[in-house]
TrEMBL record:
Residues 86-153 form a coiled coil. The lineage of its organism: Eukaryota, Metazoa, Chordata, Craniata, Vertebrata. It holds the Pfam family Filamin. Residues 23-64 form the B box-type domain. This is RING-type E3 ubiquitin transferase. Filamin repeats lie at residues 270-318. It comes from Pyxicephalus adspersus. Keywords: Coiled coil, Metal-binding, Repeat, Zinc, Zinc-finger. The keyword Metal-binding applies. It comes from the Eukaryota. SUPFAM superfamilies: B-box zinc-binding domain (SSF57845), E set domains (SSF81296).
Length: 400
C-alpha cells in the first residue's frame, strides 16, 4: 500500500454486497477536491459541500444516499405498473400471430370449397372461379396488411416497453446512487409516456370474418348462371334499404350480432329533433318507430357504421289529420266478442266451426294485437280502412 492510500479502507471483491458499485467517488466539477455527497431538492441536482454553501444556500439539501432510496422506491413502483402492460402486449402479439394463421387456414379452406363448387361447371365457370379466387386473395391481402400493420405497432410498443423496463431494472440493480438520481426523471417520464400511449392505442385483434356463400346468385358468366360469392363479413350500408317501417339488412352467414343502426329524425321547418326507438327483430331487420309532434316535412337519417344507407336521409310528410279507428284494439275476435260466431274482424281471419272472426293461431290472424276495423297492429296509428282480405259484409266487432 502507498502512502497516498494508507488511510483508505479496503474491501475484498468477494465481500462486496450484491448490487453494489465499484465506481469511483464522484467529484464536483467546480471543486475537484469535494465529493458530490448532497442533493438539492429545489434544483434537482447533486452538490458538493462548497456548492451547497455558495450556489444552494437556503435550499433543502439531503444526502445522496437518502435521496437515492426514495428514488428507488418510485422506480420500483413504476415497474410494478408496467409489468401487466408488458403481459398484455405479449398476449396481443400472440393473438396477432394466431389470427394470421387462422386467416391463412381459412383462406386455404375456402379455396378448396371453391374448387369443389366449380367442378360441375368447369367449362362454363372457369372465369367465375378465377374471379372468386381473386376476391379471396384480395381480401386475404387486405386483412394480412391490416394484421401486419397491427403486428408492427404492437412489436414497436413491446420493444419500447422492454427497452425502458430493461434500462430501469439495470439502473436499479447496478446503477450508482448518483446515476439513479440523475436518470430517475428520464426513466419515470419514459415509462409514463409509454403507459399513456398503450392505453390510448389499445386495440383488439379483428376476427377473421371471410365466408363463402355458394347459394347466392353471382350473375352470368359466359352465358351461364353462376352461384357463389365471397362475403367479407359485417353489414354494408350500401346494401341496406328501408321498406315501410322496417330497416331491411341483407341476410348474412352466421356472424356476430348485427350492429343496430343509428337514427336521427328532425323537423325540416323548426329543426326540432324527435326521439326515435329502435327494436331488434333478431332476423337481420330492425323496427324503427317515432311519434311526430307537428305536421310538415320530416327528415329521417339512418346510418350503419357511420354511413348513410341507400336512400338516406328520407323525407316523410306528416299530416295534421289522422283518421280515427272506429273499431277496437283487441287480441282476437273470439276473445273480444265473448265467443260470438257472427263477429268479424278487419284482419280477415276466421276459425273452424262457423266462426266468422279471427282467433289465436288460426288462419288469417296477424299474430299480434290489432285493430278490428282495419287489422293494423300498431295501436297508435291512423285507420287505413278495410283490408282487401277482410269480408265485405257485416264488418263489426261486439265488445263486452
Amino acid at each position: 500500500r502507498q502512502r497516498r492510500t494508507a488511510a483508505h479502507s479496503l474491501l475484498l471483491l468477494r465481500d462486496l454486497p450484491p448490487g453494489s458499485s465499484l465506481s469511483p467517488a464522484p467529484y464536483c466539477s467546480l471543486h475537484p477536491l469535494e465529493e458530490l455527497r448532497l442533493f438539492c431538492e429545489v434544483c434537482g441536482v447533486p452538490s458538493c459541500r462548497d456548492c451547497a454553501l455558495l450556489k444552494h444556500q437556503g435550499h433543502e439539501l439531503c444526502p445522496v444516499v437518502e435521496v437515492a432510496v426514495k428514488h428507488k422506491e418510485q422506480l420500483r413502483g413504476a415497474l410494478i405498473k408496467v409489468d401487466p402492460q408488458l403481459e398484455d402486449l405479449e398476449k396481443t402479439l400472440h393473438a396477432v400471430y394466431r389470427a394470421e394463421e387462422d386467416l391463412r387456414q381459412t383462406a386455404d379452406l375456402m379455396r378448396e370449397e371453391v374448387e369443389v363448387f366449380t367442378e360441375g361447371y368447369i367449362r362454363a365457370i372457369q372465369e367465375h372461379r378465377q374471379r372468386l379466387l381473386q376476391d379471396i386473395d384480395e381480401e386475404v391481402r387486405r386483412k394480412e396488411q391490416a394484421l401486419n400493420l397491427q403486428r408492427a405497432r404492437v412489436r414497436q410498443q413491446l420493444s419500447d416497453f422492454h427497452t425502458a423496463a430493461t434500462f430501469t431494472r439495470s439502473l436499479l440493480h447496478c446503477g450508482p446512487d448518483l446515476h439513479i438520481v440523475r436518470a430517475k426523471v428520464l426513466a419515470l417520464s419514459r415509462l409514463k409516456d409509454l403507459s399513456i400511449g398503450h392505453h390510448s392505442s389499445a386495440e383488439k385483434v379483428e376476427p377473421v370474418s371471410i365466408q363463402f356463400n355458394p347459394q347466392e346468385e353471382a350473375g352470368q358468366c359466359q352465358g351461364y348462371s353462376v352461384y357463389g360469392t365471397v362475403q367479407r363479413g359485417g353489414v354494408d350500408p350500401e346494401r341496406c334499404e328501408v321498406k315501410g317501417q322496417d330497416l331491411i339488412l341483407p341476410p348474412l352467414m352466421p356472424l356476430p350480432p348485427l350492429m343496430p343502426p343509428s337514427l336521427c329524425v328532425f323537423c325540416c321547418l323548426s329543426g326540432r329533433a324527435l326521439q326515435p326507438s329502435i327494436q331488434d327483430n333478431n332476423d337481420g331487420t330492425f323496427q324503427i318507430s317515432y311519434t311526430p309532434t307537428e305536421a310538415g316535412q320530416l327528415s329521417v337519417s339512418v346510418c350503419v357504421r357511420g354511413r348513410h344507407i341507400k336512400g338516406s336521409p328520407f323525407n316523410v310528410t306528416v299530416r295534421d289529420f289522422l283518421r280515427p279507428h272506429p273499431g277496437i284494439y283487441h287480441c282476437c275476435t273470439f276473445c273480444s266478442s265473448g265467443g260470438q260466431k257472427d263477429a268479424r274482424c278487419g284482419c280477415g281471419g276466421t276459425m273452424p266451426g262457423g266462426y266468422q272472426g279471427c282467433g289465436h293461431g288460426h288462419k288469417g290472424h296477424p299474430g299480434h294485437a290489432h285493430w278490428s276495423c282495419c287489422g293494423s297492429i300498431l295501436e297508435k296509428s291512423e285507420c287505413s280502412g278495410v283490408k282487401d282480405s277482410a269480408p265485405r259484409n257485416l264488418l263489426r266487432t261486439v265488445a263486452l
